[in-house]
Amino acid sequence: xxxxxxxxxxxxxxxxxxxxxxxxxxxxxxxxxxxxxxxxxxxxxxxxxxxxxxxxxxxxxxxxxxxxxxxxxxxxxxxxxxxxxxxxxxxxxxxxxxxxxxxxxxxxxxxxxxxxxxxxxxxxxxxxxxxxxxxxxxxxxxxxxxxxxxxxxxxxxxxxxxxxxxxxxxxxxxxxxxxxxxxxxxxxxxxxxxxxxxxxxxxxxxxxxxxxxxxxxxxxxxxxxxxxxxxxxxxxxxxxxxxxxxxxxxxxxxxxxxxxxxxxxxxxxxxxxxxxxxxxxxxxxxxxxxxxxxxxxxxxxxxxxxxxxxxxxxxxxxxxxxxxxxxxxxxxxxxxxxxxxxxxxxxxxxxxxxxxxxxxxxxxxxxxxxxxxxxxxxxxxxxxxxxxxxxxxxxxxxxxxxxxxxxxxxxxxxxxxxxxxxxxxxxxxxxxxxxxxxxxxxxxxxxxxxxxxxxxxxxxxxxxxxxxxxxxxxxxxxxxxxxxxxxxxxxxxxxxxxxxxxxxxxxxxxxxxxxxxxxxxxxxxxxxxxxxxxxxxxxxxxxxxxxxxxxxxxxxxxxxxx
Length: 562
What we know:
Blueprint: H1 24-34, H2 36-56, H3 63-82, H4 84-97, H5 101-133, H6 138-144, H7 155-166, E1 177-188, H8 200-207, E2 215-226, H9 230-247, H10 252-273, H11 276-290, H12 294-300, H13 302-328, H14 332-338, H15 340-349, H16 352-366, H17 371-384, H18 387-403, H19 410-425, H20 433-444, H21 456-531, E3 535-541, E4 548-554
Antiparallel strand pairs: 1-2, 3-4
Helix pairs in contact: 1-2, 2-11, 2-15, 3-11, 4-9, 4-10, 4-17, 5-13, 5-17, 5-18, 5-19, 5-21, 7-9, 9-17, 10-16, 13-18, 13-21, 15-16, 15-21, 16-17, 16-21, 17-21, 18-19, 18-20, 18-21, 19-20
């Protein structure tokens, strides 16, 4: 009988050695090093602002010096805009090809409902704030002077231009041009003919007759303007991606191509991002230096700027996070920290489309949003979801009315809100979008259009704030759509996984059958060799192509076997 040994384990009386607490400075430095790119970008914004304000107090700076200072920022904008076209194409196709038609339709419906809801909220918020703060003052109109006269813009023409740009006639031309209706007033001389008598008296009488007054006739023509037709490209490649997704395995080669293209573009984005701190600093510094009479303009339009900035802060920091929290039930400010790099980039570049590559990277890598959602929602959102623009245009329209002493009734205020919403949706496909959309709003309520030029002096700063709010709205929209579509995406992945398993099982069984068939044929040949004459032939079916091959089995002589 084997001996049983009892082992008793007692708890050790030694106290564990506590690790010394990490110093606060060390932890902060570790976080800064971990987020080095974000830290450098924030420092670039601060440094550009401070240096720009200090250089304004220096002696007048030559325009060539200003150009040299802003040159690295110009290079950054060119590199970011260079990636817009391949990024939109590859992201839309790869995102929609991974979805079926029903899923992509639901995804688009949820995104559009979110976009329109937040844009209407932003426009209404702008109207409420400008009515409460009342920044416009008729005395301010006398100090600012007369504005530049603008061409007339028709709402119907702008709407038709939007539809025309949605269906471009030439896809290559849409990469760098878009169509616009141009209105010109042409002098029309009436056909004035009169019989002249041969007598000198009547000839002299007709010669002294005053010429007829010129009559101006409005003529419209379609002209191509420089600028990428983003709306038309998005419309085409959405349809392209959906059709390619329906083709299944037939389109796998092309889908792999666009997946690789998207991966290459994102790697280029990472390289450009390490250059962005310098470019953003130079952009902001050069813009601050180049503005003339900045202090005077800030004093005159200070309340107008405060109204717009307060509205953007309320919408971007309160309303959008509340909507996200109400639907997703997660901390919206943790979500915002994940897209902080994109927000800073939008603040520096003032371009939603230029910030698009950075927004992709933040949502997919930092927050884990499904690529099928980001690649569909973000390009569309960067084109039509302009919350900050809608708020800004609503405030600007009512500010111009207040400055001219014009009282707007309730119907006109509602018209301003709706027009600002619709104009911001189509802003990306209209050349000189800020000017044209503002003209549409002022024309809709009968306000003077020449006062728009008075607001251009501060538009460079407000443009950065509203662009950053646009990017935040797009990002929150992607998070909300992903939360609402997560179950569908998971079930779609499970269905695709089952189909792949079935295909793998079929492939394995097919190769096992071929292997067994080949072994059976080999055994038959060996048996035939044993029982046949010294020279015999055996037909073997090859496993590869099913054809038969003849093999000759020769019996060895006895003396060769030794």
